[in-house]
Amino acid sequence: KSICALSLLFLSSMVFLLSARMQIIVFMFGVFIYIIYIFAKKGQLKKSLLILIPICIVFLLFIFFIPINRERFKEAINYKGRYSVDKIWGGRALRELNWDCSKKIINNNPLFGVGTGDVQDELQKCYTENNYYQLTYWENTKYNAHNQFLETTIGQGIIGLFLL
Questions:
Q1: Which among 46, 48, 29, 28 has a CA at the least distance from the CA of 38?
Q2: Distance CA 116, CA 20 (A)
Q3: How far is residue 101 from each of residues 42, 85, 89, 132, measured CA to CA in Å?
Q4: What is the pLDDT of residues 87-131, one digit of tens each?
Q5: Helices (H) and strands (E) in the chain — how many of each?
Q6: Can you tell me the distance from the alpha carbon of 42 to that of 10, in angstroms, rounded to the nearest whole number?
Q7: Is 114 helix (H, G, I), strand (E, B) or coil?
Q8: Which of 40, 58, 137, 163 sits in a 20 to 30 Å window from 9, CA-based?
């Protein structure tokens, strides 16, 4: 049991150190559900709430007092409109440009797509045509659709998406 507890503690700390928003949220949700389940099974639901409050406070401290986590969560909700693509090149803002070009390419080739080998070329062409200089600024860096479903639909169309 002690090895499992240490492993869980180590892996939990790694989730927070990686600063991956979705993994932190899923982890928090999983912990909450697990604690409620364990105590509800014993008929001690009120006790679970007493345990969840300090755990929730610890999670919030990890999010708001570690600067990288705080910035990533603020970016996710676009805190005070500060995280637009014109101001900060990263994360959510660049993905919106990726997804916009993906949508345009899919609308132009809905049924069969552009072909497996032409996805990146079409995306690069779209970034250039739409003056998304944030995505073409670095010469040797090419951004994909950043979504497997969009990437497949661009390459193989709706038929490929259905097969996926």
A1: 48
A2: 30
A3: 52, 14, 17, 9
A4: 555 566 677 788 888 999 999 988 888 888 888 888 888 888 888
A5: 8, 0
A6: 28
A7: coil
A8: 40
